[in-house]
Structure formats: C-alpha cells, structure tokens
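tool_call: predict_structure(chain=1)
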Amino acid sequence: MNAPRWLTDTEQRAWRAHLALHKLLMHRLDRELQEFELSLNDYEILVNLSESPERRMRMSDLADATIQSRSRLSHQISRMEAKGLVVREDCRDDRRGTFAVLTQQGWETIQRVAPHHVASVREHFVDRLTDDQLDELDAAYTPIVEHLKKLR
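tool_result:
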C-alpha cells in the first residue's frame, strides 16, 4: 500500500476554511429560514419547484436536483405536504412516476421568503467577496462539482 499523500499546510488551511465556511454558512441560512418555519431543505425544494414548468417536477428529478436520496426526499415532501406547501400527483404517462407540485400556499411562501433569503446570502457571502473573487470561486468549484456529479 502506498503512503498517504498528506495535505500540505496550504492545502490543509484551504480545506479547513472550506469546511468551516460551509458549515457556518449553512447553519446561519437555515437558522434565518426558521423564522419562516422553513428549513434550508424546504427552501431548496420550493425554489426548484417554483422555477420548473407548471411548478412541478418528477420526484426522481427533484431528488437529483437537490442532491438527496429518493427516500430522504420522500420524507421531506411528506413534511412539506403536511404544511400545505406541496402535493404529490401521479404521472399520467408513467404509473410508477410521481410529481411534486407546488401549491398556491407554497408559491406564496417562496415569493414571501425569497427576498429575505437572498438578502441573507448577500450579507453573509456575496457581499464579502469582490467580483474577481466570485469569478475565482466559480472557476475553482465548477470542475469539482462536475466531477462529483459524475460519481453519483
């Protein structure tokens, strides 16, 4: 077995900064959404549905878009159905398929919450970086995201 390639000091600092940023930012955004009785997962689902044709997505496509297992998404959708934000509908073309559909209440919720969430993203992330730094982050992260998507 080959010896591990330990991280250099620079690599270790970058990795730990990334982990800390991700955890702290997700915690902050999730916490701020709690004021609207939503989780970050709820919000992500509402966004995906609100941006989809007819405000609906196949459950399998929604699971892929939100990077969740189908089982976990199903539980999440059940909780959101109980709040009146979404409903499930059978797929007419494929008996095995199911759609998640944004309700009127879900649509009104995303319209009400989105401005607050975007302001939070700006305050805690976007406005802390220059345009050049944002471009660098995009250039650095995009290939990693594409690599990891292929492994799913």
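agent: The first strand starts at residue 56 and ends at 58. Proceeding to next step.
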